[in-house]
Amino acid sequence: MSKIVLQQERDFGSKINATFVFIKQEFKPLLTCLAYMVLPLALLAGVAYGLFNANLYKSIAENSLVNQSTLPFEQLMAMFSGFGLLYIFVSVLSGLLLFSTVLSYMKLYKQGRENITPADVWSVTKGHIGMLFILAIVNYILIIAGTCLLLLPGIYVSIVLSMSFCIMVFEDADISHSIRESFSITKGKWWSTFGLIMILGLISGIISVFFSLPNTIYTTSLINDPGQIDAFTTSVLGVLYLLGVYLVYVILIVGIAFQYFNLNERKYATGLIDDIESIGQNAEE
């Protein structure tokens, strides 16, 4: 199968098509990399999610016998303590590692590497994961600041900054350049970026529903007696749910990467310049 040209201008439909073609073509080696690098944290996040649910339902059962009005407060406190806090931390870390792994794989693919291994991807990922974590915090602060001003600026900033992770990994950029360049390349192309993310997000969301069904069915069956929830069962269902969500989330990450390559090529034509240079080198030979 011929390699896909990543650095290329594409229209809306072509970007969606390229996303699924790339995932289909690279599914096995990419999945292997994800299994080595993301799976351990994803399993821990799934177990923490399941135990958090179990404790939450038991708390609901206990409080419902005392004071129904305390339930919202108890649920909020549960989220930021114990297994809830562990779930938040590990899910954020594993999500960033997922993003970095996929982008690092695509970076090696773009360089023409064959038979990409988890070791190859880790050699790229380990150089970015710390800065990606800091970048995520800075992006979050900027998005919250925009949202506090008005809802629309928050949405605008979040779509623009979706490119920052790609810029950091593909261009080996620092935080300030990643953010500035995100605003630069999306100028005039915000709506197309928003549309792509919404469509791929919708597709990913619909698929992920199937992974959440077992957990939803189980917890719904306990609505009249939440105290009977079993921690082991919720842990298994939590792992199933999060593994499915992470796997499906690859669709969105790859799509965002193709949008980055599209926007970067439209502004700088680096792919075209590389083609011209390669033609000149071949002529000299």
Describe the structure.
With 285 residues, the chain is an all-alpha fold. The protein has a domain at 17-121 and 189-273. The chain is built from 12 helices and no strands. The protein has helices at 12-37, 39-64, 71-79, 82-110, 118-125, 129-149, 151-161, 164-171, 175-185, 190-221, 231-268, 270-284. α2 packs antiparallel against α4, α4 packs across α8 (164-171) and α6 (129-149) packs antiparallel against α7 (151-161). The radius of gyration is 22 Å and the shape is globular. 35% of the residues are buried.
Describe this structure in a few short sentences.
This protein is mainly α and 285 residues long. The chain has twelve helices and no strands.
What are the SSEs and their pairings?
Elements: H1 12-37, H2 39-64, H3 71-79, H4 82-110, H5 118-125, H6 129-149, H7 151-161, H8 164-171, H9 175-185, H10 190-221, H11 231-268, H12 270-284
Observed structural traits:
285 residues, mainly alpha, 12 helices, 82% helix
Overall shape: globular
Radius of gyration: 22 Å
Could you give a short account of the major beta sheet? none
Helix percent band: over 70%
- Low-pLDDT segments, ≥5 res: 65-70, 280-285
Separation of the first and last Cα atoms: 27 Å
Number of strands: 0
**Which secondary-structure class do the elements indicate?**
mainly alpha
Provide the residue-averaged pLDDT.
Answer: 85
Total of DSSP H or I helical runs spanning 4+ residues: 12
Percentage of residues in strands: under 5%
